[in-house]
Amino acid sequence: MAKILTLHGVNLNMLGKRDPKQYGAATLAQIDEQLGALAKELGVEVECYQTNFEGEMCERIHRAFAEKVDAVVINAGAWTHYSYAIRDALAILTVPIIEVHMSHVHAREEFRHKSVFAEIAKGQISGFGVDSYLLGLRAAVAAIK
Q1: I need a labelling partner for 106 at 20 to 30 A (CA). Which of 52, 121, 123, 127 fits?
Q2: Identified catalytic residue from 23, 106, 113, 133
Q3: Alpha-carbon gap, residue 12 to 27, rounded angstroms
Q4: Does 49 qualify as catalytic in the annotation?
Q5: The one catalytic residue among 49, 101, 104, 106
Q6: Per residue in 5-49, pLDDT tens?
Q7: Where are the domains of the chain?
């Protein structure tokens, strides 16, 4: 069974509380639950991981390489726009990387328009709230096949 790692970055543990106008009312636990249900439907295994510490995110990505995960779905939050450390960790992987954002990053502040992951990601999904994650999981499964 294919294994997909979903990575949630900085501040995403505050979903449901932080700026509901941009991010909606769903909590991270609810998103993880929906991802688990969809993974079961799609016949894949999904593991969800969140941290607010950049080094821990890099370490988890390194473990993903050792574990030979089949794909990664990542919403790195603000790290998307400046974390070359996470970008370099992701570049070690030889599997599809799907970048997701709940808000429409290209309709927001200019600094959010650039992703340092773009060159190594298979694609980016943004602006669909929780569905961005679900679409990202579907894209990861399609990319594996």
Answers
A1: 52
A2: 23
A3: 9
A4: no
A5: 101
A6: 999 999 999 998 877 776 778 999 999 999 999 999 999 999 999
A7: 3-144
